[in-house]
Design a protein that fits this description.
The chain is an alpha/beta fold and 475 residues long. It has 16 helices and 19 strands. Helix 1 (25-41) links the parallel strand 1 and strand 2 (46-53).
Length: 475
Amino acid sequence: MSGRPLRVGLCGIGLDAYWPQFAGLKERLEGYLGRVSGMIARAGVDVVSLGLVDDLTTSREAGRRCRREEVDLLFLYVTTYAISSMVLPLVQRAGLPVVVLNLQPDAAIDYEAFAKLPDRTAMTGHWLEYCSACPLPEIANLFARAGIPFHQVTGYLGERHVADEIAGWIAAAKVVAALRESTVGLMGHYYSGMLDIYTDLTRISAVFGAHIAMLEVDELSALRAEVAEVALNDRVAEFYLHFDIQADCSQEELSRAARTSVALDRFSAAHDLQAMAYYYQGSGNAANEDTMSSIILGTSLLTSRHIPVAGEYEVKNVIAMKIMDVLGAGGSFTEYYAVDFAADQVLMGHDGPGHTGIAQGKTKVRPLGVYHGKVGRGLSVEMSVQHGPVTLLSVAEDSSHGFKLVVAEGRSVSGPILEIGNTNSRYSFPIGARGFVEAWNSQGPAHHCAIGVGHRASEIEKVAKLLTIPFVRVC
């Protein structure tokens, strides 16, 4: 995000009629509100504490404060029964995604202690501390009729499920905020004939909030020509630290790649890029062909530094890679390579940049005599994704909402890979290789997707809900 952490609003709701009736009830509820505030703050965000809203005046002011303080996400903590007419002004004025927290103080009322309270007034006051579920249908009815999307977390304070759900919503909100602050550079043009990756760039901005910057290969080539020998040699030395440079890589090719890598850093900084997709042949123009045939190591370094880069001008997939990156999962460019029916596994990978931060071991650099299907030759990266749980994500076209998020969870597993100077891995899925391939293809995604480490479907589903687009989990 651009210069500031995520801002999360926390508002408790109650009913002012209760405070004079039940001594200490308001103070106890405010204590619970403080516990939730601490839980949110531990997620590394700024908490905008809106207090306990209990009448029309405080509701309106809380909504206005959300706007003034540029809150990104609103947690509406139902501490006890509250009337819905007091909720609507707050949410309307805030104009934010709302997560309703239906949280009791404990897993259950201590019935024995409850029965020993001195009178029915004390009993009722104690019960009201556990009454958060009571107004939920009323609030949900209001939101449905007012056309206000909302999400829910149900449980009790101190419960692991509640902490995980709140953390998940915060992680998803960070993704959405990061996308809206991102400039995505597009350099070159689509790989001709790949109809599945062509898309509506205006809709990309409308749905995900990212700014699209159209970039020129000629500018990158010009920057490349200006790289001094000192910077070039320093970058070659960095390559040896970052990559496993194979013995058959020539110094000439390392220097070509280093020159382009330094230029790429300056190029991305000049345009304040948070992601980039590219494809350009450069044939007929020696400078541009030299640039584009030496770009892979530099784009791999950018990807590992949280500026994901996708080849073949795959803007939908670089959005998927950015989502995975903000979630801390990495996000590397991949596609089907083959199916190993004997092992019931799918081989996936891609030429071009890889996310070295999620590699199994150190990423190898190999020379290629030809870039298959592309112009030129040069150095390429070869890596497998870390063995263990993984998530695949595709930003796929959707006729009603523009886009949808398609997800599968599986595992990166050991076994023979194709040592052809590309990123490539073996994956197993709970529904089997055949089941995965058919289920994934049935959603009509492009042939590329993003691969990240860990199982992230729950967080990605929350991202889709905050973006108000469909989410499909195939396994």
